[in-house]
């Protein structure tokens, strides 16, 4: 069947961010194995490859009129405050600085950037919000890097939402003086212990004035947080995966559907505000890198753009944007996220077929600790005693709790820590067919 919009796997669509290579672990959801009963599928926990999500983000800036150039405006720079020949003009392609230029691919060494109006209304604060939306839950896998041309803000907040922008929570505070700006003592990620890694901190590392051209980036440190468990070069990524399953709130900490930058005070050039030259104060952002992967609850190895929305290509008899429920014809109560454990292959936690529920005759659930190819086809896995809360409920619970305290109730960690591995080899070919049907045709 042809479809007006091609389903492009993100793997092909987007260049994979090269810095964080966590190996090819968990990149397939199933493989064909032969046993005495004939060929059958063996299922594995799987996750989509990472990508730079700036390519598919929606950008909104607030308040209205914050972008420069309407009407055209002259501006100066901190580096050269008395040379004010630069102009921002929204009606001119060469002189306009629209928000899209924060997420574009820059070619040929030309830096393109979004720019705000200048601080001509001082002492009224110069505030700007940048909201980045994906309409899809993502898991960040490497540092989020925001590049500021003409100086980094004196203070700003990075916020995140887990419910597509309904509620927000702080992710990290940035200021040249954390105590003065936010009443928080300054911290670095290296100050954090494994037990309080999900703490929201204020850092002074990216706000000090060192010259606009020397240091342009503001970082949300994901790599350093991963390194607390996996070692400095993320050599022991298995240790991180184990923590993701066992430590409450850890996985949610790296999950979001939206990000928001609240710019509170522009770069001042290392001195106080000079009222006689306010045209040198403004914000300009040339790039925002968001290396992440779609959250698919370990049930999909691909994530595609469908009707301009990200969608997991669900396997394991699951469906939904995040593979957060069982497909039709499968026991909805049997849904659970896949698990990284036991390493190295994890557990698929495939949804059970509804038809076979009654005939759980020779169920072989007292299986070995890890999925093995030699085990017989187990079609039904009898009782799963852990209460799996509905995924929508899980989301809303997570949102209302703040990230400053890592006591979030998380069904992922709850259900996976204390369950034994269930061998998921389904030999029934009709089951497999119906799965592939639904994943392809649901548009
Ligand atoms: Ca750009």
TrEMBL record:
Residues 354-420 are annotated as: Disordered. Residues 379-420 have a biased composition (Low complexity). CDD domains: EGF_Lam (cd00055). The lineage of its organism: Eukaryota, Metazoa, Chordata, Craniata, Vertebrata. Residues 1-20 form the signal peptide. GO terms for biological process: animal organ morphogenesis; axonogenesis; tissue development. InterPro entries: Laminin/Netrin_ECM, Laminin_N, LE_dom. Residues 42-293 form the Laminin N-terminal domain. It comes from Dicentrarchus labrax. This is Laminin N-terminal domain-containing protein. It holds the Pfam family Laminin_N. Coiled coil: none annotated. Keywords: Disulfide bond, Laminin EGF-like domain, Signal. The keyword Disulfide bond applies. Residues 361-378 have a biased composition (Polar residues). The keyword Zinc-finger does not apply.
């Amino acid at each position: 069947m042809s479809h007006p919009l091609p389903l492009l796997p993100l793997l092909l669509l987007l260049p994979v961010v090269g810095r964080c290579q966590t190996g090819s672990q968990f990149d397939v959801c199933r493989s064909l194995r032969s046993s005495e009963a004939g060929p059958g599928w063996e299922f594995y926990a799987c996750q989509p490859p990472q990508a730079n999500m700036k390519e598919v983000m929606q950008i909104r800036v607030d308040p209205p009129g914050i972008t420069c150039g309407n009407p055209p405006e002259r501006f100066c720079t901190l580096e050269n405050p008395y040379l004010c020949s630069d102009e921002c003009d929204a009606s001119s392609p060469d002189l306009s600085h629209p928000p899209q230029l924060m997420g574009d691919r820059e070619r040929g060494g030309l830096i393109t950037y979004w720019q705000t109006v200048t601080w001509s209304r001082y002492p009224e604060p110069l505030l700007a919000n940048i909201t980045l939306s994906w309409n899809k839950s993502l898991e960040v896998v490497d540092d989020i890097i925001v590049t500021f041309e003409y100086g980094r803000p004196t203070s700003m907040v990075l916020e995140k939402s887990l419910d597509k922008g309904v509620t927000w929570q702080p992710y990290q505070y940035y200021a040249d003086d954390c105590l003065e700006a936010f009443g928080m003592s300054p911290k670095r990620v290296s100050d954090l212990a494994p037990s309080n890694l999900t703490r929201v901190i204020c850092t002074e590392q990216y706000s000090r004035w060192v010259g606009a051209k020397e240091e342009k980036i503001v970082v949300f440190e994901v790599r350093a947080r991963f390194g607390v468990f996996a070692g400095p070069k993320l050599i022991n990524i298995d240790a991180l995966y184990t923590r993701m399953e066992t430590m409450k709130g850890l996985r949610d900490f790296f999950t979001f559907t939206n990000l928001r930058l609240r710019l509170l005070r522009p770069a001042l050039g290392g001195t106080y505000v000079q009222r006689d030259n306010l045209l040198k104060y403004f914000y300009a952002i040339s790039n925002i890198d968001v290396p992440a992967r779609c959250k698919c609850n370990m049930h999909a190895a691909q994530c595609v753009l469908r009707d301009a929305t990200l969608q997991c290509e669900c396997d394991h008899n699951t469906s939904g944007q995040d593979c957060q429920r069982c497909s039709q014809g499968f026991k909805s109560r049997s849904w659970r996220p896949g698990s990284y454990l036991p390493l190295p292959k994890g557990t698929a936690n495939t949804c059970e077929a509804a038809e076979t529920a009654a005939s759980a005759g020779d169920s072989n659930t007292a299986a070995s600790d890890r999925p093995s190819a030699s085990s017989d086809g187990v079609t039904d896995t009898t009782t799963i005693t852990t209460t799996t809360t509905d995924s929508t409920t899980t989301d809303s619970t997570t949102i209302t709790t703040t990230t400053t305290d890592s006591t979030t109730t998380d069904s992922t960690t709850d259900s996976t820590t204390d369950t034994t591995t269930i061998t998921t080899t389904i030999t029934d070919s009709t089951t497999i067919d119906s799965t592939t049907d639904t994943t392809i045709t649901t548009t």
